[in-house]
Amino acid sequence: MSQAVSTYEGWYVYHDFRKIDWNKWKSINPSEREQMIQELLETIQKWSSVENNRKGSFGQYAILGHKADLLFVHLRPTIDELNEVKLQFDKLDFADVTSTPYSFTSVVELSSYTIPPGTDPFSDPAFRERLEPILPKTQYVCFYPMNKRRLGDDNWYMLSVEERRKMMKSHGMIGRSYAGRVRQIITGAIGFDDWEWGVSLFSDDPLTFKKLVTEMRFDEVSARFGEFGPFYVGCRLTSDGLTSLLSDNIK
Ligand code: 76R
């Protein structure tokens, strides 16, 4: 049996993808729509306020393509709070014009591959901040779930910890060459969701996602072991942005 990797967990994360039923939304009279937006914004205000005392983080995005229209990302210290947040949304009148084409439940995860044995990572205060991250306020987000393959000789879970560490080191080096251009939050979902990890990338230039993911595809750990779910790309929304997405040019 190979030795399991030890991991450090931080805040729990809920990626809530929403699709808007535009026919239904447009059939509602304007004053009622206005009221529904206000109610939504008040709830969002509450969700965002957790960042003030570092009790979590919140981000909202407009998603491109047919797979979803909106993405709400919640980070909270407990999974119970994520459940509350989910129900708070579902009880809003606005929820009645949306559906959930995708969601992902996971927890911020840092693994020990690149931590020298015998050192306490918590001696660096930045380590806790990485486990409890405030979502970067970049213009663009990219999210996808992934697995590590278990097939014949390409079985990640049968490799020795040294082999895995070597590959993760190379992976981390590529990642670090994107420092300042992209931020990543890796969340672990084993036992929580249908894929093993969620990858959330943040950048002010969407092309950076393509460049980084392409470069990693050629690196051994992704080339041999990476299996990927659906990709989502989106633009960060302010409250005003969300209001105009829902109100501008509505006939
Ligand atoms: O956290 C660290 O800085 C240590 C190095 C590191 C680890 C251990 C690291 C760095 N990652 C780690 C773990 Mn990563 N990462 C991905 C993807 O599309 C693909 O091919 C893969 C998706 C991207 C784009 C990415 C980016 N990473 C992991 C794990 C857990 C593996 C396990 O435990 O088996 C996964 C699934 C994963 C996937 N990674 C970085 C990045 C970037 C940009 C970095 C540099 C981070 C930095 O230095 O700030």
Automatic annotation (TrEMBL):
Q: Which InterPro entries match?
A: CHDC, ChdC/CLD, Dimeric_a/b-barrel
Q: Enumerate the residues binding Fe-coproporphyrin III.
A: 130, 144-148, 171, 184, 222
For this chain, one GO molecular function annotation is: metal ion binding
Q: Which GO terms describe its biological process?
A: heme B biosynthetic process
Q: What enzyme category does the UniProt record give?
A: oxidoreductase
Q: Which cofactor does it need?
A: Fe-coproporphyrin III
Among its keywords, does the record have Translocase?
no
Q: Give the record's pathway.
A: Porphyrin-containing compound metabolism; protoheme biosynthesis
Co-factor remark: Fe-coproporphyrin III acts as both substrate and redox cofactor.
| Protein task | Involved in coproporphyrin-dependent heme b biosynthesis. Catalyzes the decarboxylation of Fe-coproporphyrin III (coproheme) to heme b (protoheme IX), the last step of the pathway. The reaction occurs in a stepwise manner with a three-propionate intermediate.
Name under which the protein is recorded: Coproheme decarboxylase
Which species expresses this protein natively? Polycladomyces abyssicola
At the highest ranks, the source species' classification is: Bacteria, Bacillati, Bacillota, Bacilli, Bacillales
